[in-house]
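Quick entry between incubations.
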Amino acid sequence: MLDIENITKQFGTVKALNDVSFTVPDGQITGLIGQNGAGKSTTFHSILNFLKYGGKITWDGEPVTEADFDNIGYLPEERSLMPKLTIEQQIIYLARLKDKPAKVIRPQIDDWMDKFAVKGKKTDKIKSLSKGNQQKVQLICTLIHHPKLIILDEPFSGLDPVNSDLLKKAILEARDQGAAIIFSSHDMANVESICDRLVMLKTGSVVLNGTIGEVRDSFGKSEVYVTTDWSSDQLDQLPHVVKVTHIRDQRYLLRLDDPSTGPEVFDKLTGGHYIQEFSQQPPTLDEIFRMKAVTTHE
Amino acid sequence: MNKTWIVALEIYLRQVKSWSFVILVVSPFLMLAVSLGVGYMSATSGSNTDKIAVISNNPALRKQFISTNKDDISQKVTTTNTAKRKVADDKLAGYLQLSVTNQQVSARYYSKESMDSSLKLSVENFLNKNQQALNVQNAKLSSGQMKSLSQQPIFKQHIKQSSSSNDIVKIASFWILVFVIYMVLITYSSVTAQEIASEKGTKIMEIIFSSTKASKYFIGKITGVMMVILTQILVYIIGGYVFYEILRRISTFRKVFDQYQSLIKPIIGNLLNVNLVYLFLGVIIYTIVSAFSGALVAKPEDAPKAAQPAIYLGMLAFFLTFPFQSNATGLVVKILSYVPFFSSYFMPLRIINNEAGALEISLSLLVLVLTIVLFAWYISRIYEGLILQTDDSSFWKRLKRGLSYQS
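Done. Structure below.
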């Protein structure tokens, strides 16, 4: 388990991290979200000891040292490999730096290339690959040594939906094998679909921290999805409805001023008759992200 | 395997397998081969017009003469008619008729010009030797008389090497050495600085630093470059030796080597002694500085500029040696022979001129080695900060921020 306790980091006059604390449990996926410059990469750099910081970061109760590097798989934000090497040379070189002998890694390369549907031969030079395929090779380099702590900085950026699914599958597989996984993303759908936990940073401070359910529930079930033949104006007249958003056809999203008024709205809307949909939910992560990015939740 | 070695081996293999390295190592030999080939061709072209034919009704006598004068004789011509025709056509310088008539050895030379003096001497010696053998045979001498007659006078030359030839050795050794140091140094400074600068701020460095410490990576990188330099020096030494041995077996060059043996041997001696250690260590210290300046560029696009500090320093030391090439005893030379970055030029200058004792050389080497270790240690500690930070500000701001990146 990775424990981050009260870490702070200042660059000149800029406070990049301010008393940041959270945990990344084994066998779980933690999503780290936040706007650009919120401190996500600085957090990752602190975990990897690229920076000196205030506070404490421990892995299984001990400070992270060079001895732990072999159990870490790190994918940086921008993609970068050694263009003159072949796919095989690149994977083996980085695996050897993780203390995995070439003879152990070499037989696995074909399977990993199939798993990520990398187009090309393992003898192809990195520079001859498309951007997407280079990204997949980099993902293989991050995961092939079966790390126990996986740090992925924006792993989905630039991937199409098919390749995103391949990556999600690989991340879930690593989680099932017991790895502690933390990744940053701007795509809340990805976070919501695979994360167990969520941490949101805003200007270097933690503003959200908990399981996906806990975070969403903390905002109350103030949103109601309805499918009805009522018009938008009619819905707007309902008590406690502060906002009506037309989604499509006869489907609407109602925002309530108080989640406890849901049954009252249900009674008014249905009048005791059948209705195709009435689903009261907390806000989506995407909505929470937008809300939090603007203001801090009290 | 130790991660430093993994990095060193990767750097080494990547560089020695590159075309630029192969060209760098092979080109001097190619240039030498081409220039010597051209020299050989011009020396031997039309050589038949300098050769003579030997005609004789006594095959043993002809064979004996040819065996001692192979280079001057066209062996294919065996008849007088052919020889006459070839002389007329200017394809032979002349022909020599050898015969033994009435216990007398005789030689007649037919040509448009008189015989070359060295060949003439050789012919006279040959005739004398054979005539003497015939005379001894005819005189039917006892073994004691034979022994008395075979007594030879002794003639030995004792030549003291002139100071002017000594000076030539020193100057030639000096120029060859400083040029080799300068060229190797410039090459490796550029390669190292550009390679490190091209990694600056790239994410591959973050991946590598999440696998091993930056200090280990830096030391591995420098070790890899050191191995490349050693390989190049070894190829030059082995290749040079093989080249020398091949040339020595070619008569045209053997004559030149024999003639200038008194110059060639001491020059090779001056290059293959402790000066080689100075060459190696000199390149290492400049390479480390290049790595440092490479890590200080603002962004990878500035890589070509990265080697400039090391190259300018190398040029300064190189040009500074010029005024002192014939004044190895000067105080400036003595001082600079201990100062790292300069000692690689100035101590060899003193060594070539026999102006430095073992203690002085050891002391200078110790200072150089300690400086290299200290530099490598310090830069390896701040390397992570220098490489990971990408700050498009002034040089001094970048340096300051790089140094404080880890604090």
